[in-house]
Write a structure and sequence with these properties.
This protein has 296 residues and is an all-alpha fold. It contains 13 helices and two strands. It has two domains: 71 residues; 221 residues, no CATH class. Helix 6 packs across helix 9 and helix 6 crosses helix 11.
């Protein structure tokens, strides 16, 4: 059976995003690659169309992020950005002592950098998309219902996270270490000191390029990196072997530690990212159960 004519509509968001990027003068190869990949999955056969249908909310996250990036700073004014109030809360809840002074763990790690930790903590930040895609592919083969739940949970996590960035703009620790308590909404996103050291060591600008295109400078709360890793644990748990359960927990724990060590997120952000993941999985699971009950 060929591709149903109505299925061509699935390509519309990818085509619209590429056209929107071209109109802004920002068309890149990945826009065309995403459109081409979606078209290939749609045309290749019934199995790939089934995969595309289940993964559709997962793929829409990239379209949503890219299409809305020009509006990321709308409503984000200096008086609305949480910076030193968030740092003060971090100090009160999770502070430590250094040279007789109350400091955050970020301050401590800035004063005690480790080349080994630079490299170790760069790994989850470089591979989180690969990990999410691998989990989705595994679930597609092993448990289709959980595959669909994973993709919708990923979508829900990102939508709520992006909305929170607008409603509660929050500066990351690296911003404080670079600018103090002064909010400048014209500041560009940074890879932070540790990932910059990794770029320098490798002789490439991988992380600088990644964060150079980031649209949410004041998007520290919640940590979506931590949220992604926790969704893998939450949704994949029932389908994972004991070894993969341990690996997923280790990846989540390393991601949370890395978010702090790399100066990208407050500990509060990592907790929020985990909580947002739980909420996304619970909501998507509740909707799935309600649909099953409603279906005769």
């Amino acid at each position: 059976m060929g591709t149903p004519p109505w299925a061509i509509l699935a390509l519309a968001p990818f085509a619209a995003d590429a056209a929107w990027a071209e109109a802004r003068g920002e068309l890149r190869w990945e826009h065309l690659a995403a459109l081409g990949l979606a078209a290939t999955l749609l045309a290749a056969g019934a199995c790939t169309r089934r995969f595309l249908a289940g993964a559709y909310p997962f793929t829409l996250v990239a379209v949503l992020y890219d299409a809305t990036s020009p509006f990321a700073s709308v409503g984000v004014t200096p008086d609305r950005v949480h910076l030193c109030d968030l740092r003060a809360r971090e100090l009160a809840l999770f502070g430590t002592t250094m040279n007789g002074e109350r400091v955050t763990w970020h301050d401590w790690w800035q004063a005690h950098p480790s080349h080994v930790l630079d490299v170790i903590c760069a790994v989850p930040y470089a591979t989180f998309i690969i990990a999410c895609c691998a989990c989705a592919a595994w679930l597609f083969v092993r448990d289709h219902a959980r595959f669909v739940r994973f993709c919708w949970s990923f979508f829900a996590l990102n939508v709520t996270g992006f909305a929170t960035y607008q409603l509660y703009p929050a500066a990351p620790p690296w911003y404080f270490h670079s600018h103090g308590c002064t909010v400048d909404t014209a500041t560009r996103a940074s890879a932070g000191p540790a990932l910059t050291r990794v770029d320098d060591w490798l002789g490439v600008g991988y992380f600088a390029g990644m964060y150079g295109r980031a649209s949410h400078v004041f998007g520290a709360m919640p940590s979506l990196h931590v949220g992604y890793a926790f969704i893998i644990v939450l949704v994949g748990w029932a389908s994972f072997s004991l070894a993969w359960r341990a690996a997923s927990i280790a990846f989540y724990a390393l991601m949370a530690f890395s978010a702090v060590y790399l100066d990208h997120h407050w500990i509060l952000d990592t907790i929020a990212g985990s909580a947002f993941s739980v909420a996304a999985v619970v909501i998507v699971g509740g909707v799935a159960r309600a649909r099953r009950v409603a279906t005769p």
